[in-house]
Every structure is written in structure tokens, then in C-alpha cells.
């Protein structure tokens, strides 16, 4: 098996830099905020090194951006990288905190050779503006050592790989300190010299763990790794160095996240109809926004329009320090069907979804209603309003089965304040509701008022007169 | 004639009454032959604003639009009701053959949302008809809606109070609606684009409450006189 190892020297910095519009020197500081752990190339060119005290770094670059190291965040960012790499390679292993391992031996034929695989991965890295050192080896550990030493070359030649491994100094081979001293006392300085010793000698002189480690590098001992499985949800997080106070500022990072969502959905061959946006604040409860489309959707610009509308309505309660985009609901993509020769049906359907989603995003889901008749004798219960979701395509009720009713129904019966001029039909007795406590016992008439309005009036059991509808 | 007047005439920038020609603006038949005749054989203008001015609901104003509603639903387009004053009664609409899947009710809280929603509905190709009850509306906003209506090719009807009849409006068609003596609807054309206003007609609307028979003797006498007099 041939392994490819990606070593990300400053993954957190890359991640944060992507969501920033402005350029500037950035460093990652350790939890206590004393030391610089990672420095971006910009910062390095100003003389900042990892391991430097933060005070020194700030005096070198006064407008330095700082991010505090956070293990869970690092793990999450690493998993984000595994997600895109999974599009190219099936067998991926996470090597926390900053490495990814991919089995590429089986991919050579698919991509047409090792250089093509290499190029594909490099292209993926470039697209995501990531810095990574690539290494190739016949065992996971050898690939890792080569990558971390920055000696990766696009070759599958066993002799070549072994040579570059052999030249590696012991310090670069990630032995623990004790083992390193021990080997040096034996007069060994490079990994090659360790390899040259007969296995029997090694076993006698070294601890079993150390021997196992060396054999794993060489490949004489199996080194099984559990492959990573992609999650069944989409999650992207953007962390901001400077807090964002206006919703406009969220749109730039959001655009990139939505493009990645689109890619992810395309790759899954699925659509979604609801996005969750969580805006985290420093001292307040996170704001949760749910953005829904009226139909399955995958296009980033469509989502962006909806989110923009939603954010215009929503003013931020506190500055935002990070933003998470979550999609958990996936819908299978519909094959375009039922098109006529000019493809108009599909267009209309899509336009309908676009319009309804836009309206819902600005006005809220509750503002849009669809009506339907219900099987009940009581006029106020003979209809219902539901959320507009999709066209249901229910067959219309035959007109002859429905009684004559006014087109306007009042929100509640209004007392009749004047004597009608003319009476027309009636009484129509409607009595029911004894089964659910909403008892109705009324005699309905159609009458004309002096203003010329045709009203649907009733008298109830208590002899009161009410208007319940207008024949509009 | 002065040179200025001549130029204006030659540029055809001044409309001359004697050259009254049939306009070719797109329109939808109202479904009432009598009214269509009064509107130059056209009907509701498409891609323009129409206004119905009336005092109170219940005089047949929805039945005026019902033929168009039915036609729009058959075409598979949507009918939007924006801020209606009462609930459109679903069983009655279903009985009239309106496909309720195509009917969308929208409520907006403020004027900004109202105008925005109306504009969006008008611009969409899925819309067939928009009925809106705007309440107060400055003539500047009517102008904005007129422009939005021109962007699409839908029928948009605003229902407003009759006191706005005196206010000038950029709407292409303005109808004043009044109840008649025989449960009919009297339509007075206040304005229509490309022609003279002032046509009047009366549309029979008694069928909206199944009042095809108009014989007072056969109607059940309400018990009104007994209770309140």
C-alpha cells in the first residue's frame, strides 16, 4: 500500500485567514496566552518565530492578529480537511493534530499515475488556500516522517523513499527523548544506521515499543489504521479574529461556506431545504437562525439571497465571534420530469419555489398561508390555513357537493347593528360541535343591508344577531 | 401655429383626441361581456395596475374577479391575496372552481414589507393575479407599484376606499364600484389608459348568493320584526 501524508504546518491560521477579507500577520498563541505556537508567513517575515514570547511578537508587529489555541477547534478544522480529501481518496486516516493520511496506491490507476494524484491533491490544497507538506511512503509512518521533514517527492520508487528515510537524522524521526539519547549513545545518528542493524541486535538492545516503532516505519510489522468515515451532516464554522458587529460583515465568509455547501451537496447528489445558522457571541447565548427554502435546493447564490434577506430582518444582538453553518436534512435530488418541449413546467415550478422562499425569508413562515376546505358543518371550522410548503396537487372538491357560502368570512361573528333592508334565503340551520365542546346552534340567513352589502347573518340560540360573512 | 406647437405635434408627444385608436395593450378578459365592451373589448390590463374603489365589502367585488381567478388557476399560475380585510372562505372558493393550491394568502405587518412583497409577486413569472388591500397609500407608492407591475405581465388589482377616487393615481385602470338596486354591481370607469373614461355599466351579481329568483313573496320572511322591530 502506498500512503500519502498531508502535514499542515499552520492549519488554524489557514482556516482563519480564509474567512478574513483583510490581510495581516496572524499568530496562534497557546492557551495561557504567553507563547506563540504558530506564525503565518506574513508574521514570520516580520521576524516572529514559534516559541517566541507573545510580548516580543507584539513589539515586532503591533497590529498582530491573535488566535488562542483550542484543541476541539483544531480537531474540527482537521476533519473539515478530511471531508474535501474524501472526494479524492476513500481510505483516509486522521492524524491529530495536524495530519491526514490517505491511501493512494489504489488510486494511481484511476487518476492515471502518481503524478496525477499528486497534482489533484495539490490543486485541492490551492483551491482552499491551504499550506501543506506532502509526503509519500510505503507505510503510514514513513509517509508521515517524510512529509514532516518536508522532503516529499512525487515518486513511488522504493529505493528512493528508503534513501530519503535513511538520511533523516534521528531527531526528525520522532523518537521520544529517552530513545533518542539511547540510540545516540550507540553511535547512531541517522535513521538509516538504525535500519542497518540486524533485527536480533535491535530487539536485544532496545525496548519492545521502540522496536515496534522502527518496524512500523520499515513496514515489517503491520500498522493498521481505522479509516475515517464522513459524517451524515454538513458543518462549517468560520472563526473571526475581530468580532463582527454588522450583518453585512457575515456575508463574505458566508458566501464561501455556502459555496462549500453547494460542492458538498453536489458531491452527495442531494439537496436540502433547511439551513441552520448559529452565530456565537462572546458573552451571550448564541443566536440560532433557521433558513428554509420552499423546495429542495443546492445552489449557493440562492441560499445566499435567502440568508441575506433573513439577516436584513435580523439585527445582531451582540458582536459575533464565530459562525456555524449546519445542514442535517438532506433530500434526494429530483430528476427533472414532466417537462414539455420548451421546458416551461420546470421553470415555473422553480420560480414558484424561489418566490415563496424569498417571501418566507423576509416575512416569516407564518405570514404565508394556503387555504383548504375542511369537513365540518360549522363555518369557522370548515376551512383551514396551513403553511405554504409545496404544491400538493389534491384534486379539487366537486363544486356541487359544497353548500352556497359567502366568499368573505369574518374573523369572528360581528354583531348586526342595523335591520337589514331585504331578506333573501333562509333559515339554514347549522347545529353541531356537541362532540368537542365548541357547540354551535345557529340559523343562517342571507340579507341585504342598507349599504347594499349582501351579508350572511345568523341568529344563535341566545337570540343574538350576527354578521358572519359578506357575499363579495 | 407656433413653431413649438408644431414640433410637439410632429413628435406625437401630445395625444390628440380625434385620433382615438384601438390600444394594443395586453389585457385579460374580465369574463363579463358588458364590462369588456366598456373597456374597449380588452378587460383587465396586464403588466399594469388596476384599482377598484369601493366603500364596503360584500357588494360583489370578488365575483368581479372570479372569472379571472378561475382562468389563472387553470393556467397553473398563482393568485396572491395580500392583506385581505377578511378571510377568503375556502369552501366558497372551492365551490367556485378556484384551485386552492394556487391561492396564497400573505399578511404583512408594515408598509415596507407590503410594497416589497407586492413587487416580488408582480415580478415573478408564476403569478397570474395579485389582489391587494393596501390601506393608505401615497401616490408616490402607487407609482412605485405601477413600475413593479410593468416589470411583470400580471394583473394586479388594488382594492381601495372610494374616497381615494379624487386622488390622482398612475394606475392604468380605475373602477368605482357601487352596489345597485337589484344586488347588481354598478361599475363606473374613472380612468382607463388610452381612452376616455366615464363609461358606466351594471353587472348582474345576484348569482353570488343564488338569488336567481327575485320574487319577494317567495322569500322566507325573516323573523326580524318580531325581535327588534
UniProtKB/TrEMBL annotation, chain A:
<dbReference type="InterPro" id="IPR043502">
    <property type="entry name" value="DNA/RNA_pol_sf"/>
</dbReference>
<dbReference type="InterPro" id="IPR001126">
    <property type="entry name" value="UmuC"/>
</dbReference>
<dbReference type="InterPro" id="IPR043128">
    <property type="entry name" value="Rev_trsase/Diguanyl_cyclase"/>
</dbReference>
<dbReference type="GO" id="GO:0006281">
    <property type="term" value="P:DNA repair"/>
</dbReference>
<dbReference type="InterPro" id="IPR050356">
    <property type="entry name" value="SulA_CellDiv_inhibitor"/>
</dbReference>
<protein>
    <recommendedName>
        <fullName>UmuC domain-containing protein</fullName>
    </recommendedName>
</protein>
<dbReference type="Pfam" id="PF00817">
    <property type="entry name" value="IMS"/>
</dbReference>
<comment type="similarity">
    <text>Belongs to the DNA polymerase type-Y family.</text>
</comment>
<feature type="domain" description="UmuC">
    <location>
        <begin position="25"/>
        <end position="147"/>
    </location>
</feature>
<keyword id="KW-0227">DNA damage</keyword>
From TrEMBL, chain B:
<dbReference type="InterPro" id="IPR027417">
    <property type="entry name" value="P-loop_NTPase"/>
</dbReference>
<dbReference type="InterPro" id="IPR047610">
    <property type="entry name" value="ImuA_translesion"/>
</dbReference>
<protein>
    <submittedName>
        <fullName>Translesion DNA synthesis-associated protein ImuA</fullName>
    </submittedName>
</protein>
<dbReference type="GO" id="GO:0006281">
    <property type="term" value="P:DNA repair"/>
</dbReference>
<dbReference type="InterPro" id="IPR050356">
    <property type="entry name" value="SulA_CellDiv_inhibitor"/>
</dbReference>
<keyword id="KW-0227">DNA damage</keyword>
<dbReference type="InterPro" id="IPR017166">
    <property type="entry name" value="UCP037290"/>
</dbReference>
